[in-house]
Design goal:
The structure is a single chain. The protein is mainly beta. It has 2 domains: 397 residues, Beta-galactosidase, Chain A, domain 5; 103 residues, Immunoglobulins (Immunoglobulin-like, Sandwich). It contains 4 helices and 34 strands. The strands form 5 sheets. The protein has a 16-stranded mixed sheet that branches. Strands 3, 7, 8, 9, 10, 11, 16, 21, 24 and 25 form a 10-stranded antiparallel sheet that branches. The two termini are 26 Å apart.
Length: 518
């Protein structure tokens, strides 16, 4: 999983740019570039394939004793100098990140330029003069040979900050529709929540292109078990939705039993479904509140996230999935009351596979947490079968950084809330201690125009225990419909629940899945 405190650092990086002067028409004079070299994605793939045939070399540590001193407070005081922007005349100029104890491995950055003889790449030569160290107390001369830790693309208007960032291992993120960072993506996941230690391959080199309103990032992946070549074609739509077309060619130095493709990483501490874990004064704290899946056969699934008592891995078997994502469906400020982190504005992240991905599973990993500083949720596609050393695979997919799943069907109601409480009838004395009540709210789809009626059926199944007292009704004065039932259960083993709504033979809603820990 992601290292502690990294998400805290990234949350503050958007503010680490000094006010800028007017854009120039070409590369800023302060940018220093190496000599031009031929570049193409084919050359990058060939390099990744060659690297896979050679032993892995860990990145060299540079001034590690100094980098350890660059903590959370110091990072906030280091400012990137606006006269060192890459392509300041472009729609989206790029700024660079400083090394710190949270992102200590340098990466090599290149600017890609087109010409009559094809693409040319020029290395962006590092210098500590790219940064203003202000009140950090750091000596720029001692930091002269460090290198960058990553980069970000800025909005067209300086005051709006940035919208796309790559930093640390193979992590990247976008601020989405509401200009608020939250969930992260990774290039690849290896042995997440498995018996062997998790491996974190890193993007060691990047090549940056801008073509009008399109940003293209090429990246070289390197790790003990894997190498790879990636291309990210990124577009920010006028409504703020960010769409990325991703293509990767992967080569394996060693066998891998748990390969995670298109991995998503998020944070979930507690929500409306886990009020007993609300140790903080805020009603809810999470970057995402559920896993959405669109299966290969067309079923829509919603699995609310939980903060489990121990690490839990759930696999949802599928073949050629149409999509999956970690979403933030609860977008009402009143449900968070957080005017600093703005969890109601955190983007969802949807993965749309391109081509046939074959058999495998959407895998969800949930890790216990007691605060909001750790990313404790991972979702990814895990292909069937182990990966053999010397093999290769390629994947194409599209990422949507937006508030809700793209192209959600209008004929299916969505789940918008899950709540738990003690079972039985209010006022019942004594109340049944072996019953737990579940209440799930639905909206939209065929339920939208319906007037109140009482013949809609909740179809509920459980892995153990007994379902009692199911009902569906329309919530007065709203467009929501509410389904409820009691679960009678003994013992402490987890329970897997499943529910959807029907009217006669017609399915009205997506499928609700839940894992309950008595």
């Amino acid at each position: 999983m992601q290292k502690p405190d990294r998400r805290l650092i990234l949350a503050t990086l958007s503010a680490s740019l000094l006010p800028r002067c007017a854009y120039a028409a070409a590369l800023a004079p302060a940018i220093r570039l190496g000599p031009p070299r031929d570049f193409s994605f084919g050359l990058l793939v060939a390099r990744a394939k060659k690297n896979a045939s050679q032993p892995y070399k860990a990145p060299e540590s540079r001034a590690s004793h100094l980098i350890k001193e660059i903590d959370f407070d110091a990072v906030q005081k280091i400012r990137f100098r606006p006269d060192h922007l890459l392509a300041p005349g472009a729609t989206y100029p790029a700024a660079f990140f400083h090394l710190s104890r949270y992102s200590a491995d340098p990466v090599i950055l290149h600017a890609v330029e087109g010409g009559p003889s094809g693409l040319k790449a020029r290395e962006i030569l590092y210098g500590s003069d790219y940064f203003d160290y202000g009140a950090s107390g750091l000596n720029p001369r001692a930091l002269a040979g460090l290198g960058f830790s990553g980069f970000r693309f800025l909005e067209a208007k300086p005051a709006q900050g940035d919208w796309l960032a790559f930093q640390g291992a193979s992590y990247f993120r976008s601020s989405g529709q509401d200009n608020q960072y939250g969930i992260s993506a990774r290039g690849i996941a290896i042995n997440t929540a498995g018996p062997a230690p998790e491996e974190f391959p890193r993007f060691s080199e990047f090549w940056l292109e801008t073509h009008g309103t399109t940003v293209i990032v090429h990246a070289l992946l390197d790790g003990p078990s894997i190498t790879g070549a990636y291309t990210f074609e990124c577009v920010q739509n006028p409504n703020g939705i960010v769409v990325m077309n991703v293509h990767c060619e992967l080569f394996f130095r060693a066998g891998i039993s748990r390969l995670g493709v298109a991995p998503l990483t998020s944070m979930y501490w507690y929500g409306e479904n886990e009020r007993r874990k609300a140790a903080d004064w805020r009603p809810e704290i999470h970057d995402s509140d559920g896993l959405a899946i669109w299966t290969g056969k067309g079923e829509r699934i919603w699995r609310p996230l939980v903060n489990p008592p121990q690490v839990m891995t759930n696999s949802f078997m599928d073949e050629n999935p149409k999509g999956f994502g970690l979403m933030q469906r609860d977008r009402d400020f009143a449900d968070y009351q957080d005017d600093g982190a703005y969890y109601n504005k955190r983007p969802g992240l949807w993965v749309e596979p391109k081509g046939n991905w074959g058999k495998g599973a959407v895998q969800l990993v949930e890790i216990p947490t007691e605060d909001e500083t750790l990313d404790n949720i991972v979702a990814c596609w895990r292909p069937d079968g182990d990966v053999a050393a010397g093999g290769s695979r390629s994947f194409d997919y599209r990422l949507y950084w937006q508030d809700s799943e793209p192209a959600y069907p209008g004929d299916i109601a969505r789940i918008v809330a899950t709540r738990l409480g003690r079972g039985g009838i209010p006022g019942q004395n004594p109340w049944p201690r072996d019953k737990q009540k579940f209440v799930v709210d639905f909206t939209g789809g065929p339920l939208g125009p319906m007037q109140p009626r009482f013949d809609i059926t909740p179809v509920v199944t459980t892995s153990r225990g007994k379902i009692d007292g199911g009902y569906v009704l329309k919530v007065v004065g709203t467009d929501r419909w509410r389904a409820g039932f009691d679960l009678q259960i003994d013992g402490k083993a987890p329970v897997d629940l499943r529910m959807f709504l029907k009217l006669g033979s017609k399915t009205l809603s997506e499928t609700w899945l839940y894992q309950y820990f008595p």
